[in-house]
Specification:
Layout: H1 2-12, E1 17-20, H2 24-40, E2 48-51, E3 53-55, H3 66-73, E4 85-86, H4 95-108, E5 114-117, E6 139-142, H5 145-151, E7 165-168, H6 171-175, E8 179-184, H7 190-198, E9 216-220, H8 231-240
Parallel strand pairs: 1-2, 1-5, 2-4, 5-8, 8-9
Antiparallel strand pairs: 3-7, 6-7
Helix pairs in contact: 1-2
Bound molecules: fructose -6-phosphate.
Length: 252
């Protein structure tokens, strides 16, 4: 469904400014987008992209870097112009200046039209770890022990190879996007989804700040929804809002 929402927005606006996330959850989304490019001619030629985050100290050809991930899962398989793809520069000699420039480039492109998000087990969006300021902008952050435990699998389980810092769009940057869509899959996300969706807005769970966003959709599978209290209400909305009618088809 997330890939279908992106495709719909891209068809309506070929110049779309898309905010992108990485991680295991997004792999299925990118696989479907690549498939739609191949079978339905989904056109990325004018699309601009901004990734949420990148590890500090990993060059683009390092398999653990998010530039590598994006090339591997999406960019190299669709007709996007690589010059229109932006990932924070974790190798910059002046990280703060590079982050400022990232924010400026987003503004220059007219802002992010659609921001794709995953959620970390500690509630992060991007790499906005617990107690990130709700108005934060792109900057370097130390990764939390929970995030290191979550992502060390991408470094063959070797903590010494995993960077301890990353550049990330801020919570404020994400809240400035015109629309956002967050995807969570699996029981390991059930607790944090319940906190983010039904709990109070708190810096301890950065994703809870999405409650402040005027056009945010959260998509979960059955397992990730297990701890939500108001699932019947969410189903009712999904079944009755015209916006979602076309997504009721099983394949969507
Ligand atoms: C990565 C990012 C992170 C991930 C989150 C979930 O660019 O922004 O917030 O979306 O850590 O990761 P997975 O999908 O691997 O569970």
């Amino acid at each position: 469904m997330v890939a279908r929402v992106i495709a719909k927005e891209l068809r309506a606006n070929p110049n779309l400014v898309l905010g992108l996330a990485t991680g295991g959850t997004m792999e299925s989304v990118y696989k479907l987008l690549v498939e739609m490019h191949r079978t339905e001619g989904l056109d990325f030629s004018l699309c601009r992209t901004f990734n949420l985050d990148e590890y500090v100290g990993l060059p683009p050809d390092n398999e653990g870097s998010y530039r590598f991930y994006m090339n591997h899962h999406l960019f190299h398989h669709v007709n996007i112009d690589l010059r229109n793809t932006h990932v924070p520069d974790g190798m910059a000699s002046d990280l703060a200046a590079s982050c400022r420039q990232y924010e400026e480039t987003i503004v220059k492109m007219g802002g992010i039209d659609l921001q794709l998000l995953g959620i970390g087990r500690d509630g992060h969006i991007g790499f906005n770890e617990p107690l990130s300021a709700l108005r934060s902008r792109t900057r370097a952050k130390a990764l939390s022990p929970a995030t290191i435990a979550q992502n060390v699998r991408y470094f063959d389980g070797d903590r010494s190879r995993m960077p301890k810092r990353a550049l990330t769009m801020g919570v404020g940057t994400i809240l400035d996007s015109k629309r956002c869509i967050m995807l969570a899959i699996g029981e390991e996300k059930a607790d944090v989804i319940a906190k983010a969706v039904e709990g109070p807005i708190t810096g301890m769970i950065s994703a809870s700040a999405l409650q402040l966003h005027s056009h945010c959709t959260i998509v979960v599978d059955g397992d990730a929804s297990l701890k939500l209290k108001e699932v019947d209400y969410y189903r009712w909305i999904f079944d009755n809002e015209p916006e979602w009618q076309e997504f009721h088809k099983p394949h969507a």
